[in-house]
Design brief:
Length: 171
Amino acid sequence: MKDVMETEEMADLSGIFAADTDKGADPVVYEVGYHILPTVTEDALAGEVEKVMKVIKGTGAEMIADRAPLHIGLAYPIAKKIGTRNEKFTDAYFGWVAFSISPSAIAGIKTALDENPMILRHLIIKTNKDSVAATLADPSSDIMAKDEPEVAMDDTTPEVKVEEKKEEEVA
């Protein structure tokens, strides 16, 4: 069995699907969100992202936008079969890419992503260019934003009163 830590190249799967069998079909905007295994080193991460992009570009997709993967904690553990064992992961590198392509080509992209041993999980959704642009423009969509939410003070928020003590009372 192959170990996911091996650095051997993933087979080029971009040729397994036809570029466009729906010659008359209008392209649809899709977004692929993906988690790359946290066992991938920082140095190898760019190569894994390139494999994802190569699969998508290999279908003739028009690239719209993407966000490079960032290391994040997962909301819950996700299991993946590695060799003969189910490994649980609590963190991963999350990235996404938006592109436009004929609907007939999306099955090939899904197959290639399913077969990539370095992808923990992925999701393909239909979207539109306006939603992608809004996501890019909205700083709150940045998963690495560390700003704490502001707490608004209103009439129902209790105030903490600090009493001042006179110098004589302290001594």
